[in-house]
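Re: weekly structure request thread

Next one in the queue (383 aa):
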Amino acid sequence: MAVRDQNVPDQTVPDQTAFHVPIVDLTPYVATGSDEGAAEGTADDRTRVAREIDDACSTVGFIQIVGHGIPPEVIDGLAGAIDDFFALPLETKKAYRVAGANRGYSPPKSESLSLSLGVESADRMNDFFEAFNVGVEARSFTGLGLSEDDYGINVWPEVAHFRERVETYFSEASRVARVLTRVFADALGQPPELFDRLTDHSIDVLRMVNYALDEGPVTLDGDLRGMGEHTDFGLVTVLWADRVAGLQVLGPGGVWHDVQPVEGGLLVNLGDLTARLTNDRWMSTLHRVAPPVVDGRIMRRRSAAFFHDGNVDAVVETLPEFAGPGGDAYDPVTVRDHIAAKLAGSRHGKANTAAVREAARVRAAAHPPLSAAPAVHGPSAGR
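Done, posted below.
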């Protein structure tokens, strides 16, 4: 289903059949058996996959991937862990909140993701989801002198086998993200070292989400959002989600399109830092989550997003071959500063004034129009 913004003239609405999220089979790049260096396909196979990825990244910014190699039982284990944690009483879950860090539990209505883009709607409630985050820790990278302020320290709930199931999936999602960046390098005509040097101590976070509306009949006002419009912060996101309506991707002409993962597939989207590398030749696409409603009833929806964000101290700048006329390009930024500005918006209500291009796209698509958000002073966010 497509939802057209009423502010967009009819003639700008594209043929709805023209919008689709491409399906790409990663098998030629995925290691098989016990030999982690051996991939399934030939050089020609990998060239074809790289070409398909380039096309998807430059036209949609979202990809359905199959052949990713994550065993079904690992995904089932993750889903069970999500169910077990979010079934706990709210007060029990709140004991796992971590102040000032991108770890632990976030209760419903505690975030507003559109502020990560520097825009807001005066009458919009905060995003109606609850989440639990885990990620890599600075102590995972010995000898680098990294700070836990940048990475965070995990908290683990007292839920049977929760940590084991989540860490198993985290390891698999990390592998898939690194397969993708290898494909990205090939697709962009770059050496593999491009992403290796950006990600050898990457800030990787797994965000498990439960859309916290009770199942059953519902009448919704126009402002309720499961998760507000936003772009992702880092290099690439790997998403597992229930095959339930909710995720919407902004297409041409200000049209929001429903997207669900294919059977056995994962959804992949690019983050802001990859868009910066390519000067928006590849797209960090706006997306949001509407309440998961089917035939007038709220449905259960869970998701788990693996964010592969890059090294905290890496400087990301537009690659020379993608600079525009006269050298037009994004200004260099460290991963630390970029993510801190984003999190200051979503978590602490401080509008991200650096997200100029992204904010313009949100305001162009919003109904009612979103205004530039006033600065709200608060602490900077650590991730």
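Residues 21 and 63 are 6 Å apart (CA to CA). The chain has one domain: 2-9+57-372.
Next request, please.
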